[in-house]
């Protein structure tokens, strides 16, 4: 991998794919009538906050490192609603991967291939159920909802 592809991955592909993933969660939260939705991209100091109706978007200085979407409402979510909000992130990455792959078939290049592969990776990794050091994947949350072993949110 040349330096340009690495920089493209780090500063464009990773944050864009993460943002799409978190927007998927936020969109699903809106469909189940969440009262408040917040989306964060990156880590470190907060550099920008954008408000769009019920959606609050926080952008952090290390914008290419992680993301998080949270939603709340007065009436507790039902298990099916939790599962929907949770699965929407990986679904959006899967759709993005499909669309980028289609573009890649028409215009093959390393940049589109990397965008395709990274979105596939986010979708697949997030659907696998595991928990590491207090952080859990979307698949783990869905597994909790299905088995109802403990509170998920």
From TrEMBL:
Keywords: Hydrolase, Membrane, Protease, Transmembrane, Transmembrane helix. InterPro entries: Peptidase_M50. GO terms for molecular function: peptidase activity. It is a multi-pass membrane protein. The keyword Phosphoprotein does not apply. Its cofactor is Zn(2+). Residues 16-107 form the Peptidase M50 domain. The chain crosses the membrane at residues 81-104, 110-128. It is found in: Membrane. GO terms for biological process: proteolysis. Belongs to the peptidase M50B family. This is Site-2 protease family protein. It comes from Virgibacillus tibetensis. The lineage of its organism: Bacteria, Bacillati, Bacillota, Bacilli, Bacillales.
């Amino acid at each position: 991998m040349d330096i340009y592809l690495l920089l493209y991955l780090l500063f464009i592909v990773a944050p864009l794919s993460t943002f799409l993933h978190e927007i998927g969660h936020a969109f699903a939260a809106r469909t189940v009538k969440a009262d408040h939705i917040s989306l964060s991209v990156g880590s470190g100091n907060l550099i920008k906050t954008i408000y769009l109706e019920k959606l609050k978007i926080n952008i952090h200085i290390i914008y290419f490192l992680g993301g998080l979407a949270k939603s709340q409402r007065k009436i507790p979510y039902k298990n099916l609603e939790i599962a929907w909000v949770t699965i929407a992130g990986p679904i959006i990455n899967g759709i993005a991967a499909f669309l980028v792959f289609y573009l890649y078939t028409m215009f093959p290049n390393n940049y589109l291939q990397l965008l395709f592969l990274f979105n596939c990776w986010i979708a697949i990794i997030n659907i696998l159920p595991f928990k590491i050091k207090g952080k859990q994947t979307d698949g783990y949350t869905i597994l909790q909802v299905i088995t109802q072993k403990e509170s998920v949110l």
